[in-house]
């Protein structure tokens, strides 16, 4: 019994799909960049960051952005340092 043309096309598509799944991803795409990211050392503090959302007045937010540009770790490190300083200065609050 011969197959219909649509069945032949389906079989070819399945064969091609199977080859593509087993071939792997070339390094010029996403595969190479993940290896570079894994090789980059990360600081111990950066491993356990917890997202915190707060609303600030626009003037205060602008001052924070200006200081974060000059700060070594950027906005995240600046906020962590400011909160740590405040919590040490006010232990009962």
What would your notes on this structure say?
This protein has 93 residues and is an all-alpha fold. 66% of the residues lie in helices and 0% in strands. The protein is rod-shaped. The chain has four helices and no strands.
Q: Tally the helices: what do you get? A: 4
**What average pLDDT do the residues reach?**
80
**How many strand units?**
0
Q: How is the main sheet built?
A: none
Note the beta-strand portion.
under 5%
Q: Uncertain spans, ≥5 residues at pLDDT below 50?
A: none
Report the end-to-end length measured between terminal Cα atoms. Answer: 83 Å
Based on secondary structure, the structural category is mainly alpha
In short:
Helix content is 66%, strand content 0%. Helix 3 packs across helix 4.
């Amino acid at each position: 019994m011969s197959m219909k043309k649509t069945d032949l096309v389906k079989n070819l598509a399945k064969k091609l799909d199977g080859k593509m799944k087993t071939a792997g991803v070339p390094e010029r795409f996403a595969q190479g960049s993940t290896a570079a990211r894994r090789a980059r050392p990360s600081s111990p503090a950066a491993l356990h960051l917890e997202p915190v959302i707060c609303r600030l007045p626009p003037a205060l937010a602008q001052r924070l952005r200006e200081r974060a540009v000059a700060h070594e770790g950027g906005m995240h490190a600046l906020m962590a340092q400011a909160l740590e300083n405040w919590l040490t200065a006010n232990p009962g609050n």
